Amino acid sequence: MSKSRLEAFSDGVLAIIITILVLELKVPHGEDLATLKPLLPVFLGYVLSFVYVGIYWNNHHHMLHACKRISGAALWANLHLLFWLSLMPFVTGWMGENHFAQLPTALYGIVLLMAAIGYWILQRTLIAAEGPDSVLGRAIGGDRKGNLSLLIYAAAIPLAFLDARLAQACYVIVALMWLVPDRRIEKALAAREG
């Protein structure tokens, strides 16, 4: 199957997710900076979630660029990933509105963990369709950064109940790890073309 429909659909869903995220930012009543202070947790949650959605969009784009065809299983795997990402506005809003309380922070981590698992499943499905010697298969290799991300998310969820700030630090660390796009795919594509 052509990958263009999958890319277009995914781009549209991710754009809607970002739009819903920004709608959680309510306009304050007042004209001085003090009226913004109560909105700071919601804004910080928005920034973190926007960065995460951007990271997924960027790496999803690179991953699909490395593929030549899409299987039916990949369509379902992509929907699975998009399902978890579509929950980002809800958990972001709940976490921000409750000033990063323990349970909302843990649930945010669960959604991040499940989105990472969804991405991993999509990645493995695409590699299975084209083979381990495909551009994507060679580029991903052992995927240390992806596996480390899963471990950090899994550790952050129970940490949220000890101290939510520790879990939030874990979420920021993983975001910083992925802020620079995954260069492995770009290098593999350059090797294929060069």
Q: What does this 3D model show about the protein?
A:
The chain is mainly α. It has nine helices and no strands. It has helices spanning 4-23, 40-65, 72-86, 88-97, 102-130, 135-140, 144-162, 164-179, 183-193. Helix 2 runs antiparallel to helix 4. The two termini are 26 Å apart.
Helix-strand layout with pairing:
Blueprint (H helix, E strand, L loop, with lengths): L3 H20 L16 H26 L6 H15 L1 H10 L4 H29 L4 H6 L3 H19 L1 H16 L3 H11 L1
Helix pairs in contact: 1-2, 1-3, 1-4, 2-4, 2-8, 3-5, 4-5, 5-7, 5-8, 7-8
Features of the shown structure:
78% helix, 194 residues, mainly alpha, 9 helices, 0% strand
Helical amount? over 70%
Whole-number radius of gyration?
Answer: 18 Å
Mean pLDDT: 93
Q: Tell me how many strands there are.
A: 0
Q: Provide the low-confidence segments as ranges.
A: none
Shape verdict: elongated
Strand content: under 5%
By secondary-structure content and strand pairing, the structural class works out as mainly alpha
Order of secondary-structure elements: HHHHHHHHH
Largest sheet: none
Number of helices: 9
Distance between the terminal alpha carbons, to the nearest Å? Answer: 26 Å
